[in-house]
TrEMBL record, chain A:
Organism: Aliidiomarina maris
Residue stretches making up the MucB/RseB N-terminal domain: 65-234
Annotated GO biological process: regulation of polysaccharide biosynthetic process
Record protein name field: MucB/RseB-like sigma(E) regulatory protein
UniProt-listed Pfam families: MucB_RseB, MucB_RseB_C
Automatic annotation (TrEMBL), chain B:
Subcellular location: Cell inner membrane; Cell membrane
Primary residence: membrane
Oligomer status and interactors: Interacts 1:1 with ECF RNA polymerase sigma-E (RpoE); this inhibits the interaction of sigma-E with the RNA polymerase catalytic core and leads to a decreased expression of sigma-E-regulated genes. Interacts with RseB.
Domain of life where this protein originates: Bacteria
Name by which UniProt lists this protein: Anti-sigma-E factor RseA
Length: 354, 201
């Protein structure tokens, strides 16, 4: 459904049109007059330039990490009332997002979907309740509400510094406010990056975009209104007294993994956070299951019996999917990573030798 | 009802902008409203977005509610203000475990199939098919296909739909496990020596 061509695609194409002829001339010049750089020039110039860029890079990274942490703290400490839109593929979903901290330090956060069947999530410190107009409500013990903003944004940068570095890019204007643009980039170019715009005066997250290695925007969250107050709003305070639905019974995590498996390749920073054997949603097929996270990107690894006609599937997007046969098994990885990365991980799976 | 009106209706169904006055006159006409619903349903089915069981006519109820609303000039009540007494927030009396996490709506699976006469020269899709797996209490997850290498899901008939179901299954299950894992991560952070037992290393 990508019928609309966004302005930046057009801009890029225009740029190519302008640059291409100039580059062709340059190339022609280069081939007709091969110019070897003189060794003396290189020797004198290189150390100074690389030194200055290094220290520049260092300071931009320190600044970037400071802005990231400022945003993380703002998401935990600010009393805000905001609206945002979440865009993924050709879908766009509006949300309302309210957060407050009471005098005794109790945090209340509310996220509500504004389109379609009603959906609300309410967080009370480390207790999150999910309500949906079409489903039974339930609660979970977690201090991060599951929504369009990546869970990693609610943790200090330290938690993801193994796999990512963050660079301060510069200033910008978002929602008519002065904003700081920072970029979270993977160290090994095996995963997606994030562009983040932080409000300079409050530290609030104003906009974020998930960006592929090629620079394509895969997913975006953009605030459309923001009110920041000194105190928790009365409306939010009222929600403290609400009786909450029961905690979820995680029955899918009771059975241990059945087979013995080894991954021969895993990008740096990924850790196993969950493993079990469970019947999958929708099809009910039994699978050995592993969930890995690097603090921002997450992927699920499924090993299931090979069906008669099990397809090989490759899908790339904000969530990619790779599925292929390995001996008698179907190996599938789903996660917020480039297709090439999950393919390489899946291909590295071997039955563990005892 | 005239053909002109039907034209407007079909423009509306296709998500095109129509004149506000035309829209007003259409909404006043019961026959037009019913026609719109049929168009909308047909359009959803064509796009394979239909959610059987949810094709409920609420327009009459909404109209009644709008009529009963107090004047719009009154300060609009914040939608959560009646919070504490709202049945919305009330925990369910009986808690069906299986239904809770496992309850998932899969919406907007844009089925992509070539008709026999189209399947000739240009196999390249003008539109990317789109899967959307939306776990309740989670975030929608549409994924567009990258130039599909082997495209078994483009197969027609029962086999193709089985494969689509399998792909959905992975996306939906992934979202569920992600949400459930947040509980554990918190627990693990609280007692850091609590390591998962089986680990593919």
């Amino acid at each position: 459904m990508n019928l609309g061509v966004s302005w930046w695609q057009i801009a890029t194409m225009m740029l190519l049109l302008i640059v291409a002829p100039a580059k062709a001339q340059q190339d022609a010049a280069a081939t007709s007059q091969p110019q070897a750089p003189t060794p003396s020039q290189q020797a004198t110039e290189q150390p100074t330039t690389s030194q200055s860029t290094n220290s520049q890079q260092d300071s931009r990274q320190i600044e970037g990490a400071q802005w990231f942490d400022r945003m993380q703290q703002a998401l935990r400490a600010l009393n805000f009332d905001a609206h945002f839109v979440h865009a993924r593929g050709d879908r766009i979903e509006p949300y309302r997002w309210v957060h407050g901290v009471s005098d005794n330090g109790t945090e209340i956060e509310l996220l509500a979907g504004m389109n379609g069947p009603e959906y609300r999530a309410l967080r009370h410190n480390n207790h999150v309740s999910y309500y949906h107009s079409l489903a039974t409500p339930y609660s979970m013990r977690t201090s991060v509400l599951s929504g369009p903003v990546p869970a990693g944004f609610f943790q200090p940068f330290q938690n993801i510094s193994n796999a990512y570095h963050v660079v301060s890019v510069g200033g910008g204007r978002v929602m008519d406010r002065p904003a700081q643009h920072i970029r979270v980039v993977s160290r090994d170019r095996q995963r997606y990056g994030y562009s983040i715009w932080v409000d300079r005066s409050t530290g609030m997250l104003l906009r974020t975009a998930t960006v592929s290695l090629e620079g394509d925007v895969l997913e975006q969250v953009q605030l459309t209104s923001l009110f920041v107050n000194d105190e928790m709003s009365e409306n939010l305070r009222e929600l403290k007294s609400i009786a909450r639905p029961p905690l979820i019974d995680d029955h899918s995590n009771r059975e241990p993994v059945r087979g013995a498996w080894a991954l021969n390749w895993l990008p740096q920073g990924f850790e196993l956070v969950r493993s079990n054997s469970h019947r999958m949603a929708v099809t009910g097929q039994q699978a050995d299951y592993f969930l890995y996270s690097d603090g921002l990107a997450k992927f699920s690894l499924y090993i299931s019996a090979r069906g008669q006609d099990t397809p090989s599937v490759q899908i790339e997007g904000a969530d990619s999917l790779y599925s292929a046969q390995l001996n008698d098994y179907q190996v599938t990885i789903v996660g917020s990573l480039p297709l090439a990365t999950i393919e390489r991980i899946a291909q590295s799976l071997r039955p563990a030798t005892p | 009802m005239t053909d002109k009106h039907n034209e407007h209706l079909s423009a509306l169904v296709d998500g095109e902008d129509i004149d506000a006055s035309v829209l007003d006159s259409m909404l006043e006409d019961d026959a037009q409203k019913q026609q719109f619903q049929r168009y909308q349903l047909a359009s959803s089915i064509i796009r394979n977005e239909a959610q059987p069981g949810f094709a409920v006519d609420i327009s009459a109820a909404v109209a009644a509610q709008v009529a009963a609303e107090p004047s719009l000039q009154m300060p609009a009540k914040r939608w959560w203000q009646k919070a504490a007494n709202d049945s919305w927030w009330r925990p369910a009396a009986s808690f069906a475990v299986a239904a809770s996490v496992a309850l998932v709506t899969v919406i907007g699976v844009q089925n992509y199939q070539l008709s026999p006469e189209q399947s000739g020269a240009d196999q390249v899709p003008a539109e990317n098919p789109l899967f959307e797996a939306r776990p309740l209490g989670g975030v929608g997850n549409p994924v567009s296909f990258n130039a599909v290498q082997e495209a078994p899901m483009l197969q027609q008939g029962a086999q193709g739909s089985d494969q689509r179901r399998l792909i959905q299954s992975f996306f939906v299950d992934h979202q569920q496990q992600l949400q459930l894992s947040q509980q554990e991560q918190e627990a693990a952070e609280q007692s850091s020596d609590n390591q998962p037992e089986s680990q593919p290393e």
